[in-house]
Here is the input.
Amino acid sequence: MSLFRTRALAAVALAASLGATAVTSSVAAATVASAAVPTTPTTLTTPTTPTAPAIVTLPTGEHLSLDARGHITPLDQGARTGLTGFGDAAGDRFLIPSEAVPYAGRQLDMSLFDLTKLAALQKTQISVTAQISVTAQTSAPAQTSVTAQTPSAPRIPVQLTYRPGFAPLAPAGVTLTGVPQTTAAGSTATGYLTADSGQALAGALREQIAADRAAGRAAGASGLPGGLLSMALAGTTAPVTPFYPLHILQINATDTAGLPANLPVLLVDTDNSLVFTGQAIVVDGVARIAVPAGHYAAYATFYDTDSQGYDTKDSLVSVPDFEVPATGTVPALTIDGRSATSKVAVGTDQPAALNLDMDAVVRTPVTGTPAFVFQVDGPNAPLYVSPASKAVVGSSEFGVDWNSTAASYQYVLAYTADHIDANQTYAAHDADLGKGTDTLAGGSEYGTQPRTLSAGPQDSAVGLMIGGHFANGSTVTTYYTPGSWYRGLVGPWSSDPAQSVDGPVLSSDPVAFPAGKTVPRIWNQGPMAPGVRRHATADPGDSCGACSGAGGLNLSLSGAGDSNVDTSGQAMGSETDSYFWNGQPIMSDPPAPPWFGLVLASAPAGPATVRAVVDTDRTMVGATQSTKTHTDISFPYTGKADPAATLPAGNSCLAAQAAGQPAAPCQILPVLTITYQLAGLSASNTSQLPVQVLNLDIGHESFGGHGPRAAVTGAQASISTDGGATWKDVPTVGAFGHYVALWPNPAAGTSLTLRVTAKDAVGGTITQTVTNPYTVG
Here is the structure.
């Protein structure tokens, strides 16, 4: 089995969000003081991946999406900046833009590039609006609802320290806040970055790199000006000291020009990654770091740049095996960027321009969990790797992901091996590939703006999805190397992600693409409404939306779906949630961020009727379809076990995590959900049929066949053409969760509202209303 495995990270996200005691990884690095080397180690902390999709902005202004499974999709069209990624044994993921690599771990603290922290931070800013909405209800007997609104310009708060004798000055892109503090030891200040201002920081970094290169110095050799010692994510604390006998390892690193390098190096204890995994920070070609004795691997990424500081070449250097002895002298480790001599290239049958490519190494130790490193960049910076043999201690997997695009098709390819061959040229022939045909449906407000259609291998621990940008309304053919792939659709955005993202963030279950097989899919076909999802397989990346376990309970609806039962996602706009227990208002206990929905560490005793009321509003982002939704769900809670509804062990359960027993078995709750399939819709979700046909697929959340078995006993569709003031029931026939409804379409341009009600044999009900589910043409 491939070593590229995706890991669910929701457990620690919940623990952190609920205010549980922070769990700090035992993985830490103790750095030995010297004149040129930082005296504090890099801290690797437990991740806080959100369970709802997010658009994440890096401190240097780059944008990416993070879906419910934690998959990353770069979004910036035509970007000239590469990314270095690290993943450690604790589950943390760091994404460092190429212009920041020479300063990472030095003046730019590694916390600035902790993806899971950034995602949680930026989603927490959504909850600020929610808390204002709640606390404003001072006359209410209880806090019954939470409103979450997408922020237009999320801030990244930072803390800064300066050398003695330097007045606090704001680095490029940083706005200082509060009153700086000055002592004999130096000065401190606080501030923030935004998506727009982060681009100014990136520009300043590139200018500094260009100046170093022009002077014959290695990138980052002159550091950053203004006496800045460190800029870190606000709240970053001192690292944990490991409790192991330590030995001094010296790393000597030179860049691709033979100059002393400045960069982080990933070190992995291949005997036990939980004992040590961390980044050694190389400054002026040297790092000295205290580590436990044992067997190790080391990985580093290098970037060549042009006269403006933009990437022209990316290099990944691997040292798959070396030893730190328990006695005697520890041999120095040499990492030479010039050893990356093998260029990665893929040839395809049809002409296609390189969009993004990635090389990665996942290192699996004898004991512990895998760590990884990767580089991803675009057509202006080819990837080079250093040849490396098969791992001696533990195992290793090298992977290449490749995305090249044309106007109406793209290649998304993946190749893996247990070593890094000197020949990194690959050939992809259409006859040997699987094929997907994806229609990117969407409202007229999207026009022909670009949307990102991406994919990533199911068995990838890296969790990166790459893909091209295609016009809304188009049908795209994607060629895949045979295997199982996650897929996603993001956008479109008004002009670029820095301004706004009007379209949803959607993802699918993994789909198998055998050679010669074509799999069609229509994305974003209306209506788009919240619900729990039905998964054909029990994929470990999926969390339970409605579960109970270890005395806890959670209920969280995916913010957006489409006509596919496995689509989950988030729509841009606002959402208001209210929850009731036997008719009485109830809130998460302890308090949880709004994107978790209802989370109870200790649910009241059953039996009970649990009710959720969820309202979404997308008018603020200019939506013309599925502009508002109202979902009212009730279900019985018994507190008793149902073997058929037991959540598979590989899927995460927020209920058990909230109760402090993440490994406890969980039950999938009988929450009804609706999937809509409107006949005759165009790619703009417009219908010109005289009689509209709607297929309804109604059921409960499930994972590979595991889920509640309560029969759906009835459904009724209704329509309104006066904004819900009056309703007309329409013919709705069917059974066993499958129903068909039909009605005469009103005149073109009429605003129509759709309401569907359904019930099951155990007393569960759902009523869902969607305003403008499609356009009447």
In short: The helical segments are 10-17, 115-135, 195-214, 654-658. The CA atoms of residues 528 and 562 lie 5 Å apart. The two ends are 51 Å apart (CA to CA).
